Amino acid sequence: MTELVHLGVAAGVATITLDSPANRNALSAEVRGDLAAHLATAIDDDSIRVIVLGHSGPVFCAGLDLKEVAAGGADRAVGEIAAVLERIWTSPTPVVAALAGPARAGGVGLLAAADVVVAALDVTFAFTEVRLGVTPAVISATLLPRMLPHAAHELFLTGEVFDAARAAAIGLVNSAVPAERLDAEVRRYVDALLLAAPGAVASTKQLLRSSIAEELSRLGALSAASFAGDEAREGMLAFAEKRPPQWAAPTGAPADGRSS
User: Fold this and answer.
1) What is the mean pLDDT of the chain?
2) C-alpha–C-alpha distance, residues 172 and 158, integer Å
3) N or C, which end of the chain has less CB nearby within 10 Å?
4) Residues 6, 182: Cα–Cα separation, whole Å
5) CA–CA gap between residue 220 and residue 78 (Å, rounded)
6) Residue 220: is its pLDDT beyond 70?
7) How many CB atoms are located within 10 Å of the residue 134 CB?
8) In terms of Cα–Cα distance, which of 137, 169, 177, 181 is closest to 156?
9) Is the pLDDT of residue 159 over 90?
10) Measured at the alpha carbon of residue 105, what is the angle toward residues 76 and 187, in degrees to the nearest 5?
C-alpha cells in the first residue's frame, strides 16, 4: 500500500507531510495510521528538535473521510483522531504546522494541536460539522484553548468560512503571510526553536499545556454519539448527493422562518 503520510529528517528537523491529495488529505484510516506512526518515530528520536507538519496538494486537510464514516467507521475514527491530537499536544518536541491550503473540520483541530501555526494569507478555514449534522466535539479540546471565546461561538455554530487574517486575529494561527513567504516564515520559527535547549523546551511545554486526555475521552463519546444520530446520517447523505440537507433554509429566507 502506498504511504499517505511521509517523514523526512534533516539537520534535527522532522518534516511530516500529509500526501493524500486525491481526497483532500482527509483523515482516512490509512492517513491516521501513517500520521500516528511518523509522529511516534519523530517524537521518540532525541536527535529531532522540531517537527514540521505540512501537506502536498492544494488542501491541508479536509477533516474526517466522510465516506469511511458513513460506512460505519465513526467510533474508530474518533478514537484515532483523539490519540493523534493528544500526541501532538503533549509532544515534548515542538510542532510547527505549515498551511499552504485550506483546512476544514478535523483538519482545523489537527493544526490547533501544534505549538505554532503558519498559514498563507489565501488559506481558508471552516468548522463544517454543524452543517453536516454533527458536533465539533473532539477537536474542541485543542481549539478552545487557542481561540477567542466569542469567535469560537460564532464559527462553531455557523460553520462559515473565514480567512487566515481572521484566523490570526482570533488566535488560531500564529502568523499569516503571503504564499511566497510561507517557507521563509516556517523556517524563521524552526530556527528560533533550534536555538532553545530541548530539555527546557519540553519542560516549558509541560508548563504551558495541561493534559487533555480526560477531556478527549469525554468529547470522544459525545462525538461518536453525534455521528450516530439522524442529523449526521442526513448530513452525510446530502454531502454525498451534493444537495442541501433537509434542515437548510434557502439563502436569504427570513431568520424566523416566516414568509415575508
Assistant:
1) 94
2) 17
3) C
4) 20
5) 6
6) yes
7) 24
8) 137
9) yes
10) 105
Tell me if residue 175 falls in helix, strand or coil: strand
Please report where in the chains the cell 442529523 appears, as a residue. Answer: 231
Cα 148 to Cα 140: distance, rounded to the nearest angstrom: 12
**Residue 115 CA, distance from chain mean position:** 13
DSSP helix, strand, coil percent of the chain (3-state; round to 5):
50, 15, 35
Which residue is associated with the grid cell 454533527? 134
Overall average pLDDT of the 206-216 stretch: 90
How many residues are listed for the chain in this entry? 260
Calculate the alpha carbon distances from 52 to 26, 229, 237 in Å: 18, 36, 35
Grid cell 465516506 is found at: 67
Which residue do the cell numbers 450516530 mark? 228
Nearest of 98, 102, 93, 139 to residue 117 by alpha carbon: 98
Choosing among 3.20.20.450, 3.30.1130.10, 3.40.50.20, 3.90.226.10, the CATH entry for 5-180+197-208 is 3.90.226.10
Mean pLDDT of 138-152: 97
**So which residues are the catalytic ones?**
129
Which carries the bigger pLDDT value, residue 213 or residue 62? Answer: 62
Residue 257 has a pLDDT of 43
Q: pLDDT per residue over 98-127, tens digit each?
A: 999 999 999 999 999 999 999 999 999 999
